Each structure stands twice: as structure tokens, then as C-alpha cells.
Amino acid sequence: MTRRHDVDDDTGWGKPRGRRRGQRPKSRRFRRSLGQRIAAYTSIAVVGVLVAGTLVAYAKYRSIWDSIKRIDVAGLVGNQPPKLNNAENILLIGSDTRVGQGGIGGNAANTPGGRSDTLMLLHISPGNHDVTVISIPRETMVPVIGCPPVDGTTGQQAEPGDEELINATLDFGGPVCTWKTFESVTNIHIDHFIELDFTGFEKIINDLGGVEVCLPFAVDDPDSGLNLSKGRHHIFGPQAL
Questions:
Q1: CA 86 to chain centroid
Q2: Facing residues of 119 across strands?
Q3: CA nearest to 104, candidates 209, 218, 206, 222
Q4: Of the spans 18-27, 58-67, 137-146, which averages the highest pLDDT?
Q5: Distance CA 6, CA 119 (A)
Q6: What stretches of 126-171 adopt beta strand conformation (E)?
Q7: 32 pLDDT tier (thresholds 50, 70, 90)
Q8: Band of pLDDT at residue 230, cut at 50, 70 and 90
Q9: Tally of CA atoms within 13 A in the half-sphere of 175 that contains its CB
Q10: Residues 195, 214: contact at Cβ < 8 Å?
Q11: Which 3 state secondary structure label does DSSP give 56?
Q12: Dihedral angle at the C-alpha atoms of 207, 208, 210, 214, nearest 10 degrees?
């Protein structure tokens, strides 16, 4: 009877065989070409410029919007004529007040108050894609109606049978009185108003970058200080006024 002995096999055949691991693939590094990198950096720069430009434009818009003085006429204009459609009627008022104006054409001391020397109705018709402007002469005679004191004005009492110049309504009762008087005479519904004085006029001209004028003759006006030769000129706010 023989005894069997296990013999170590140097060849490895007697050893348990484990699972062979697959070789890990080498990682691939994606390298962008020079053109792609330039395009990426350019896109980032363009986006940055657009964002910065938008912020600057919005800041400018907000500064202009916030500088506009507003008067809430709700409850002051009384019963209005009916609004017949979706058109917008805006009353444009040009005031001759000298307050804060700088002395051209007088000052607030020798020319107190403010009259609507320019009065226009701006009619915006969305359906017809049309805009119509009607100018109302400042000497137009209108009935004297009751107006509350608004924006530092004294207001005025109704005087049935009496008349006044329509430009005087702004002086006595502010834009609300001009609004009420216009509606009572024309029976046209007003939605908004815009009032512009001499200072506002100068700012608009400056915001436009000035305007071109062509004078048929030289101008030398000692009262305003305007001195321009005959011909074409690019002028800004004070000169335009």
C-alpha cells in the first residue's frame, strides 16, 4: 500500500486560477486646437461686453426715468369723457416757466409763473399704426373752470360766462387744470400728459448729441448771449434754446 503525497507544481497548474483583470485603458486628454480656444475666449469677451453694455444702458435709462417728475392726476381731473377705443391720447405741454432756467429770456422774479405757450394733442392709434399731432394755439379762449391747487399753483374758481386764454390754465392750476379744460372743451379723453420746460428742452437737445441748424443770416442777440454767424452750425442745449 503506497502513500500518495501532494507535490507542489512549479508550473502553476496546481494553483487556483483567479479572474484575469482586463487592462485599464489609458485616459485620453482632449486637447482643443488653438482656433477653438481663441473662439471660446472671444465668445466670453463678447458676452462680457454685451452684459456690461446692457448694465450701462439700463443705468442710463434708470437715471433718466427716475429724474422725471410725476404728478398723479387720479381723482383730480374729475369726470372724464368716455374712452372709445384703445388709442392713447397724450397732452403735450410746453411751459415757459423761468424756474431753474438760467436767465435766458428773463428769470422767475421778473417773469413769474409758467404758461403753456405750446400745447399739442398726441394721438397714438395702435390699430392703424398711426400717430397724429394737433397743435392748439395758446391764445385760444376757453371757459374758466374750477381747478384744484396742484404742484404749487393757487388753483382757480369756476367763473361761468367768463373766459381765459388756454395757456393761462397751466399758470393757475398746473397741468391738471390744462387737462380738465381741454377735455371740457373738446370732449376728448386724455390718458396722459407730458410737460416740458426750458431746462428739459436743453437736456433733450444734449441727449440727442446736439442738432444742426442753418441760419440764413448772422445772429447776435445780447439778451440771450447768442452769437452765431450765417450758415450751418451744430448747436447744443443753451444755444438751441
A1: 22
A2: 93
A3: 222
A4: 137-146
A5: 120
A6: 130-135, 141-144, 159-165
A7: low
A8: very high
A9: 26
A10: no
A11: helix
A12: -150
Q: How many CB atoms lie within 10 A of CB 103?
A: 11
List CB contacts of 227: < 8 A, sequence separation 6 or more: 219, 220, 221
Residue 152: CB atoms within 10 Å: 8
| Phi, psi of 29, rounded to the nearest 5 degrees | -100, 120
CA distance 192 to 189: 10
AA letter at 206: N
| Region of 71 on the Ramachandran plot (φ > 0 left; ψ -120 to 50 alpha; else beta) | beta
- Residue 84 to residues 89, 102, 189, Cα–Cα distance (Å): 11, 43, 8
Place of cell 450758415: 231
Please state whether the predicted TM-score (pTM) of the whole model is above 0.85.
no
pLDDT tens digits along 44-84 = 888 888 888 888 887 776 766 666 777 777 777 888 999 98
How far from chain centre, in Å, is Cα 201?
15
Mean pLDDT, the chain, integer: 82
The Cα 111–Cα 103 span in angstroms is 10
Only one residue has cell 441760419, namely: 215
pLDDT tens, position by position, 155-167 = 899 999 999 999 9
Beta bridge partners of 93: 119, 195
Element housing 214 (H / E): strand 211-215
**Are 194 and 91 within 8 A, CB to CB?**
yes
- Inter-residue contact 163 to 144 (CB < 8 Å): yes
